[in-house]
Amino acid sequence: MQRRKFLGIGVGASAGFLLRSQLRGQQYVSSVGSGLVEIPLTAASTWLSLATRQALLYSYNAQMPGPLIEARAGDTVRLRFKNDLPEPTNLHYHGLHVSPTGNADNSFLEIPSGEAFTYEFSLPSDHPAGTFWYHPHMHGTVARQVSRGLAGVFVVRGELDSIPEIRDTPEYFLVLQDFDLYVNGLIREPSFMERIQGREGPLVTVGGQVNPRISIQQGGWVRLRIVNASSSRFYRLRLEEHPLYLIATDGGAVPSPIAVEEILLVPGERIDVLVQGQRADGSYRLLSLPYNRGGMGMMGGMGMMGGMGPSFGGSAAQVLATLSYQGRTDRTWSLPARLLIVEPLPQPVSPPRSFAFGMGMGMGMGMGRGMSFVINGREFDPNRIDTRVRLNTVEDWEILNPHWMDHPFHVHTNPFQVLDRDGAAERAWRDTFLVPAGSRVRLRLQFKDYTGTTLYHCHILDHSDLGMMATLQIV
Ligand code: C2O
Ligand code: CU
Ligand code: CU
């Protein structure tokens, strides 16, 4: 493992956060104390060491993952972006509630190879604290660019971080990525069939490392912020002999910690969990258990990775990281009973809208290049408005998945609450939620603060690249 290093980029970087964040060799920039976070961010294709080998990857500032960006509600964010990739790209700030227009979180921008662009936006003064992330959103090539490594964490600090027990807990950012590398270090591009399934790479890394160690003190706690930055891979997480205490979902805190033995993290999704050091000294594995996201039978099952490993969903558990006990602490505390209040959204006055995931051109097996993925029968067209909503309204959206594979639904700009069977809203904010094959999910959204055209899509990035994305205009 690399030594922790601190690059003096930006302003007001806070050493306290740096130490607690246990960043290993990772670039870090913070606005804490200054109200402005400013960072030069260069996307380039470079040789990096990844899991003890050299690989030709796409990265931000030659870091895998990209630099950690930290801000607070009300802050201004300025990213001096430079595209040194051999192809156009852009930036999206996944989950942030900021403007989707101009030089803010505008996924319609295209930064040509060799050009620079300054992104600048402000977080609203009531922006929730949470784990967000940034990645490219260049339509048609998002899966390729993300699977080559383009991803970084954008953390918003706030109320959740000031709860004393949480404030004093060592924190780790676990960015989950997967790569498909040839032995010569070049990335293997998937076949069209693999894109239909959603590409997965057999090399799984956590913060750019294979099986990193997370140390915990006997009697102490750690906080794990986990980001699924893979283009298609699902992670069914379990930590041996340790329950995970969920304190936040995508969009921020839940009202009180929720103990879970296992949790499924779909592409784009984040969780924030606490773990207590209460077992015998030793090492415990954070595992990703097998999960079938559909289509195995239809797509021929094993062998789709060109013989390089288990097929999609994997037949064996993967070890992601190892929790290892080191020392003990007498400063023990128990879980806070309450975190933050999450008000359920009011019931909408308008009738629900329906969106159906599907595949274009039928279900035949003669899958030519014309095969596409659709929402409500239509392939993505950036020049068409698919859904028009009014600012300051609440709506229920029903997402139907009659397809034979799972699709995680994601919407930009505004988070949502998931409705249960009785129509009650979950006390949690999310922006990415799994709609399993053959099921439906109902969400409640509120369109706040920003007008403009934004996007919703499946977050299996090969699917959105192949058309499973649509425009949302907020007026
Ligand atoms: Cu994480 Cu539209 O994306
Ligand atoms: Cu997004
Ligand atoms: Cu999909």
Structural class comes to: mainly beta
Bound molecules: CU-O-CU linkage, copper (II) ion
Q: Please, what is the average pLDDT?
A: 89
Q: Termini distance?
A: 49 Å
Radius of gyration: 21 Å
Number of extended strands = 30
Strand content: 35-45%
Strand order of the largest sheet: 11-10-13-18-15-16
Give the CA-based shape: globular
Specify the biggest β-sheet.
6 strands, mixed
- Uncertain segments: 1-24, 297-311, 362-367
Helix content: under 10%
| Total helical segments | 6
Describe the structure.
The protein is mainly beta and 475 residues long. Helix content is 7%, strand content 40%. A six-stranded mixed beta sheet has the order 11-10-13-18-15-16, with no helix packed on it. Strands 1-4-9-8-6 form a five-stranded mixed beta sheet. It is globular and about 60 Å long. It starts with 14 loop residues before the first helix and ends with a strand. Residues 1-24, 297-311 and 362-367 have low confidence and may be disordered. Residues 92, 94, 410, 412 line the site of one copper (II) ion. The site of one copper (II) ion has 4 residues, from strand 6.
